[in-house]
Specification:
There is one protein chain. With 272 residues, this protein is α+β, with helices and mostly antiparallel strands. α2 packs across α3. It is globular, with a radius of gyration of 18 Å. The protein has a single domain, classed as q2cbj1_9rhob like domain (Jelly Rolls, Sandwich), CATH 2.60.120. 35% of the residues lie in helices and 14% in strands. The strands form 2 sheets. It has a 6-stranded antiparallel sheet with strand order 1-8-5-10-3-2. A 4-stranded antiparallel sheet has the order 4-9-6-7, with helices on one face. It contains 8 helices and 10 strands. Bound molecules: 2-oxoglutaric acid and fe (ii) ion. Fe (ii) ion (FE2) binds next to loops.
Amino acid sequence: MAFQLSDQHIEEFHMLGYAVFGKILPPSLVSDLRRVSDTAREIARERSGSQVQRLQPVGHFDLDQQPFIDYAELPDLVDAIAKVLTPRHRHGNRDHLGILLEPAEMPYCTAWHRDWRDNIRGLNLERWNQGLLDINLFNQINCALYNDSCTWVVPGSHLRHDLLGEAERFPDRPISGPNLGDKTVEEREHICLEYCRSMPGAVPLYLEAGDFALYRNTLWHMGNYVPYSARATLHDSAMTPEFEAWSQRVQQEASERQKDGVVMDNPNANRF
Ligand SMILES: O=C(O)CCC(=O)C(=O)O
Ligand SMILES: [Fe+2]
């Protein structure tokens, strides 16, 4: 059955910070995108080694571009994004679009973070605070070509600053991931999962093949990866001219602040 957008998708996007458009990619497109992702995985591992977890942007590599064009132009998807956000929000820019991949050998996880605030060194926190609720900014996409439970989120956290328990869990900046040094594969898997669950309110975001998650990257979130689960998930933005301009301006300012010696400001510095 063709995908039907409902008010529930729109409500979940605003209230939880993410909405999943179930099975919105037709199987034939999943098949074409899987084929090109196999090549992307080979290129990524050749360039960056077996633990690499992404290739980005797809437009800059020797890959068949047609499946990405078909994804960018898929009418149900263009329509659903326009209804949840606005017709000015565009996905599928191949100068930006990436593919998230499973590591080949060892489990790994990222640190818990809210994008920009916790992973852009030198960022002026005022910019992020001011933009937190701006619907033109921070709209991100994970579109799964295989079942994917790698992304963990704290639902609703995009609507607010950190709760006390979140600030207490990660009082320092930059936020550290778990210590995985000198551990076996199974120990690493165990430690990463414990780390995911150590955040109050954390849940995995389950996507099936062909599902498309539209989310606020201002949510608390992280990625947790095991080598035995194939992953090829399109990583994209619902972009606006405002977010393009904001990103450029804020990145420029962040690199100047870094030159001045700023490492990473702590959003909770005054709470303890
Ligand atoms: O792998 C994921 O789904 C999350 C990745 C992520 O959070 C990031 O790249 O900032
Ligand atoms: Fe992120």
